[in-house]
Amino acid sequence: MSVRTIVYRAYAESYKKLVILKLPNHPYPSFQELTKYRNAHALVKNLKFPGLVKILELEKFEQRLMLVMEDFGGMSFHEYLYNQNIYNQPLSFTISQFFQIALQIMNPL
User: Fold this and answer.
1) In the predicted model, is pLDDT for residue 52 greater than 60?
2) Positive or negative CA dihedral for 96, 51, 49, 55?
3) Cα gap 8→22, rounded to integer Å
4) Among 99, 105, 103, 52, which Cα is nearest to 77's?
5) Which residues contact 6 (CB under 8 A, 6 or more apart)?
6) What does the pLDDT look like over 25-35, one tens digit per residue?
7) Average pLDDT over residues 43-67
8) 3-state SS of the chain?
9) Predicted pLDDT at 109
10) Residue 38: pLDDT band by 50, 70, 90 thresholds?
11) CA–CA gap between residue 71 and residue 68 (Å, rounded)
């Protein structure tokens, strides 16, 4: 969860698998916020890029739009930092740690 978004891991009956649900944190998001979700869905839904999370659907949820994305068992950056014992330290990495993270992001496979 962040100031702007909420992220859930859920089981989707329609897909018979785990999915990630991402939606605006505010119950009545602005037009610009809703447009960001529509644009993300339109841009990413047909891309087939290694390491790119697939967006399965864009659904209306209450007054919000919700992205339904594949769940490939990944972890958030927050979880990664916590698992590496970096999270509780001031946000400073050694150059080696920085490049290790950057390479994993750029070459996810």
Assistant:
1) yes
2) negative
3) 7
4) 105
5) 22, 23, 24, 25
6) 999 999 999 99
7) 89
8) CCCCEEEEEEEECCCCEEEEEEEECCCCCCHHHHHHHHHHHHHHCCCCCCCCCCEEEEEEECCEEEEEEECCCCCCHHHHHHHCCCCCCCCCCCHHHHHHHHHHHHCCC
9) 57
10) very high
11) 9
Asked if 11 contacts 18 with a C-beta cutoff of 8 angstroms, the reply is: yes
Q: Please state the pTM of the whole predicted model.
A: 0.73
Cα gap 97→29, rounded to integer Å: 37
Length of the chain: 109
d(CA 92, CA 76): 18
Q: Which domains does the chain have, with CATH numbers?
A: 5-70 (3.30.200.20), 77-106 (no CATH)
Predicted pLDDT of residue 108: 63
Buried b (16+ CB within 10 A) or exposed e, 61-85: eeebbbbbbbbeeeeeeeeebeeee
Q: How many CB atoms lie within 10 A of CB 44?
A: 15
